[in-house]
Write a structure and sequence with these properties.
It is a single chain. By secondary structure, the protein is of the alpha/beta class. It has two domains: about 170 residues, Response regulator (Rossmann fold), CATH 3.40.50.2300; about 130 residues, 3-Layer(aba) Sandwich (Rossmann fold), CATH 3.40.50. It is about 45% helix and about 20% strand. The chain has a six-stranded parallel sheet, with helices on both faces. Strand 1, helix 2 and strand 2 form a beta-alpha-beta unit. The relative contact order is 0.14.
């Protein structure tokens, strides 16, 4: 064999080995949550890991800041860029503040999607809403109105003032109020998805509005804090706490009567769907309006003109089914 032929053979074998190694390397998808230590996001991570196991060549990096700030998420994203992850799926604390660092990620070839709480269009390739904004808005009002035959005052205890999803749901809830005669929205307050602040805000609502009939919290942290505040105030049966919560956390509230019913999509499904979407977009799925992107067992996500899609409808939990779901998530 000539020297040249040996060199060419060596180069070919080396290239094949490098190609094989690159092919075998797992895709790294980072699931960036609003803050660590929140049950909803831990359940979403279970779904992400389920999707990774199903796909077979995916590693999940579950991460987020220790508190619900944009600054904390920016620091986390910069670290992920430095690690060279393949995709970032983020539930944003602020829709605009994280855009520049996510644009930096996309410039480096990293796939970026948002889920749960969205990012402005310039900062991601698509957004996955847990459900339809209009349907959620109607649902959270209906959950209260169903147990208020004579009408009355309700108040909303939300997360942060910049939470994209909660703000959209609140706007949708206000829009359907005329469909519920006698239901009056007394106030909207913000607990920043912090248990202690949400508890104090719920106390403030009860003090400011003595005729209050329901507290609606479209946040898993807020609804649990409001339930505790109503319980501690001895107002079970007078003020119904409802909104969006986790069955595992809300079982005691339902059993005590502090909560008649509440709703949530399945966060396990949400983490699963977000992982599937990030994987398929990383592998070339189109993200133009009207595109359908597979979400595994969930079905397909159909993108609208803003590059957003809805996963599924919310589901109502009450005394009839809480036992079935409280051990799941």
């Amino acid at each position: 064999m000539s020297v040249l032929k040996k060199i060419l053979t060596t180069v070919a074998v080396t290239a094949a080995m490098v190609g094989s190694a690159a092919h075998a390397e797992n895709i790294k998808i980072a699931l960036v949550v609003k803050a660590l230590g929140i049950g909803f996001f831990e359940a979403a991570n279970k779904g992400a890991e389920e999707a990774a196991a199903e796909l077979g060549n995916v590693d999940i990096i579950y991460t987020g800041p220790t508190d619900t700030t944009a600054e904390g998420q920016i620091e986390v994203i910069n670290s992920l860029i430095a690690q060279g992850v393949d995709a970032i799926a983020i539930s944003a604390n602020d829709p605009d503040a994280v855009v520049p660092v996510l644009q930096k990620a996309m410039e480096r070839g990293i796939t970026v999607i948002s889920w749960d709480s969205g990012v402005a269009q310039d900062g991601r390739q698509m957004h996955l809403n847990p459900s339809s904004t209009d349907l959620i808005g109607n649902t959270i009002i209906k959950l209260a109105a169903d147990h208020m035959p004579d009408g009355g005052q309700v108040a909303i205890l939300s997360a942060t003032t910049t939470s994209t999803n909660q703000n959209a749901w609140i706007d949708a809830a206000k829009a359907v109020l005329p469909n519920y005669p006698g239901i009056e929205l007394a106030a909207v307050v913000y607990g920043d998805d912090l248990s202690d602040k949400s508890y104090r805000e719920a106390q403030g609502l009860m003090s400011s509005y003595p005729d209050l009939k329901a507290i609606i919290a479209p946040t898993t942290v807020g609804i649990l804090a409001a339930c505790q505040a109503v319980t501690d105030a001895g107002k079970i049966g007078q003020i119904n706490v409802t909104g969006l919560g986790l069955p595992s956390e809300m079982a005691g509230c339902v059993e005590s009567g502090a909560t008649e019913s509440f709703a949530i999509w399945n966060p396990i499904d949400l983490g699963y769907a977000a992982t599937m979407l990030a994987y398929n977009i990383h592998n070339g799925a189109a993200t133009t309006p009207g595109s359908e992107i597979p979400m595994g067992r969930i079905g397909n996500a159909t993108l609208d003109d803003t590059g957003s899609a809805a996963m599924s409808d919310p589901f109502t939990y009450d005394k009839s089914n809480i036992e079935q779901f409280k051990s799941i998530f």
